[in-house]
Amino acid sequence: MNPGTCAAALVLALSPFAAHAQSAAHFSPAYRFTEQSGEQLFANVCQGCHMPDAGGATGAGIYPSLAGNKNLEAGGYPVYVVVRGQRAMPPFGAMMSDDQVAAVVNYLRTHFGNDYTDAVTAEDVKVARP
């Protein structure tokens, strides 16, 4: 088992959602995520901090709610944040392809009480990369 997988397993084991996460998720090997759909990426990457209902959390840090979030209205903003990170959120751009970033952003923008149907594309993501 590589160190990244060990760290992820430890975090999940200590999580209050450990039983659900261990039965429903698989871990991406090495440095890049293998999940392709926005739903899979959210479940295996985002919900650990933003919670399964995207409601956010407060504890060791503040993880903003993505549910009903007006900041998701302009598609370029969440693309930028996922690719480059912001505050305590790490940049996931090196770990996700342009298609994966677009998929998870589009998933967030159309779920959890968000109804922003103008989809972002892989080309939009490419422009946001450093």
Descriptive account of the structure:
Residues 1-25 have low confidence and may be disordered. The longest helix has 13 residues, at 38-50. The termini are far apart. Strand 1 (57-58) and strand 2 form a beta hairpin. With 130 residues, the protein is mainly alpha-helical. It has a two-stranded antiparallel ribbon with strand order 1-2. It is built from six helices and two strands.
Looking across the biggest beta sheet, what order are the strands in?
1-2
Q: Compute the gyration radius: what is it?
A: 14 Å
Q: How many DSSP helices?
A: 6
The total count of strands amounts to 2
Inertia-based shape = globular
What are the main properties of this structure?
130 residues, mainly alpha, two-stranded antiparallel ribbon, 6 helices, 3% strand, globular, disordered N terminus
Question: What is the gist of this entry?
Answer:
With 130 residues, the protein is mainly alpha-helical. It has 6 helices and 2 strands.
Secondary-structure blueprint of this entry?
Layout (H helix, E strand, L loop, with lengths): L2 H12 L3 H7 L13 H13 L6 E2 L3 E2 L12 H9 L13 H13 L11 H7 L2
Antiparallel strand pairs: 1-2
Helix pairs in contact: 1-2, 3-5, 5-6
